[in-house]
Amino acid sequence: MTTVKEIIGEMRGASSGDIAYVEKAYEYSKKAHEGQTRYSGEPYFIHAAATAKGLAEYGMDAVTIAAGLLHDAVEDGRVSREEMEKEFGAELLFIVDGVTKLGTHKYHGAERHAESLRRLLVATASDIRVLIVKLADRKHNMETLEHVPEHKRRRIALETLEIYAPIADRLGMGKMKSILEDLAFPYVDPDAARHTAEMLKTKEQESEEGLAKMQKELKKELAKKGVQHFRTKIRMKGLWSLHQKLKRKRDDINLIHDIAALRVIVPTVEDCYAALGVTHALYKPLPGKFKDYIAFPKPNGYQSIHTTVVTPEAGIVEIQIRSEEMHRNAQFGIASHMSYKQLGKGVVKLDKETQKSRFSALSFSWIRSLIPSLMKITKKENGVKSVASVPSWLAELAEAHADIAGSEEFVAGLKEDFFSHRVFVFTPKGDVIDLPAESTPIDFAYAIHSDLGDHIQGAKVNGKLVSFETPLGNGDIVEIIRRDSAHPSAKWLETARTAIARRHIRNALGMTEAPKPSRRRHSHTRKRSPGH
Ligand code: MN
To answer: Rounded to an integer, what distance in angstroms lies between the CA atom of residue 71 and that of residue 92?
Structure first.
């Protein structure tokens, strides 16, 4: 059982108040979960404590760690929301509520809906810390998945692989991503997992000696050239990621050169390029394999220099060169920008220089792509007014990013895209369908299948029959009643908002030329009550 000392031991820069707060949450959670057990038969509290320890390791603040301790206490009805707020404050309750809400969206294995669900989860998490608690929660659940009834294991493992690992990846949390993938892999495809593990082990043994020699030689050369205070590490490729690559290379392990990679971690960016010079002077690089992710970071902010060289000691080896800061970012991603509470406490108030160093590593293109889809429109008397429904952490990131020179394009894009918003709706089975806002049941039907669209008899939203013109709202459960004798009419063209629906309707009507698309106005936006 994780002790409170172990959790506190991971907290860096914590005040005595922070420590007392976490200690209180620890005792409180232990009491709240008293008598409750996990599938393994162990006390339930083990899960809460392990989640909190993971969060402490990621450098999260005291409130987030305490939220990890208490994340299941409200849902289980062991503590009331009022009591939690009174004892631990509104901020903690806010995070716990967010984690509970995320748990209600489940993945049922339709791969084409995975992206929509990922977006929905990110949109639902009104604070980035909610996602990070959820990832820490999922990590411990995966570590203990063997105790869960067999029929549930595969769904949970698939959800981890398809939804949560990609979210971790996009938040730049590389370590979390590969841990989640490798925990899920054996449950999703046991034979392939065993096969890949054997290959990896063989490769590890083969390359061990050569890599150690090479490491020594490179160290000597770097020291000679004045690169000091560096460290080197051997990193083995993750199982799932190796499996994916093997599939692309027709199962020929000899075509994969980054199974074992040598990492060189140096103090500064200048040192990175100096180390690259030393490396290329020592070993011949393979042409076309050199990538400078320092000058051109990956969309999730990842930075490093990758080069693949031919060595006499270990054959073909990938070398990854990065600074200490890049290394920390590559492992913890967005979480490494969160420690010491900067993000939750209004990052825009930080001075420019701090902001720059904190955010320059992230280019946010994924988050940027999300922002338009998270805007919603509300009607005001004086016309249509745009209102941001962006989670505040996204807005803060966007604002912080907007202050950095050279991002006018980002701001401009944000304004232009303001109206191209999306809604997320559900099929009766719980699959998420991502549609443009103001979409109707007709768009929904065609998004599922053209045959369903061509035979719509009626539509139900949240169990009630509605007209075909009804605009769908976030979280609606939409059911299409199909009948062979039902066919599209010309009126449907005005009702459909998506190009795909209109194309199919025109086909069904035998129209060859597209009529001028009617400009839909936002005049009948339905007022919706939240909470669906
Ligand atoms: Mn949990």
So the answer is: 9
Cα 50 to averaged position of ligand 1 atoms, centre (Å): 10
Ligand 1 centre from 394 Cα, in Å? 24
Contact between 352 and 403 under an 8 Å Cβ cutoff? The reply is yes
The contacts found for 212-221 with CB under 8 angstroms, 24 or more apart, are 213/313, 213/314, 214/262, 214/311, 214/313, 214/314, 214/317, 215/262, 217/282, 217/313, 218/262, 218/264, 218/278, 218/279, 218/282, 221/278, 221/281, 221/282
216-225, 292-301, 393-402, 490-499: least confidently modelled range: 393-402
Q: What is the pLDDT of residues 280-332, one digit of tens each?
A: 999 999 988 899 999 887 767 788 999 999 988 888 899 999 998 889 888 88
- Whole-number Å distance, alpha carbon 48 to ligand 1 midpoint, is 7
Give catalytic status of residue 416 as yes or no. Answer: no
Amino acid 166: pLDDT: 83
Query: Tens digit of pLDDT for each residue in 135-145?
Result: 999 999 999 99
Distance between CA atoms of 172 and 9, rounded to whole angstroms? 25
DSSP lists the bridge partners of residue 315 as 311
Lowest mean pLDDT across 104-108, 351-355, 378-382, 452-456? 378-382
Ranges assigned E (strand) in 171-258:
231-236
Ligand 1 center–CA 455 separation, angstroms: 43
DSSP secondary structure of 459-489: EEETTEEE-TTPPP-TT-BEEEEE-TT----
Q: Is 76 a catalytic residue?
A: yes
List 75, 85, 204, 313, catalytic entry? 75
Burial class (CB in 10 A: 0-12, 13-18, 19+), 155: middle
Selected catalytic residue, list 76, 146, 209, 251: 76
Count of residues for the chain?
532
Residue 234 DSSP label? E
Binned at pLDDT 50, 70 and 90, residue 410 comes out as very low
**For residues 152, 154, 160 and 162, what is the CA-based torsion angle, rounded to 10 degrees?**
-130
All domains of the chain, ordered by start, with CATH? 4-185 (1.10.3210.10), 190-332 (3.30.460.10), 392-509 (3.10.20.30)
47 Cα to the center of ligand 1, angstroms: 7
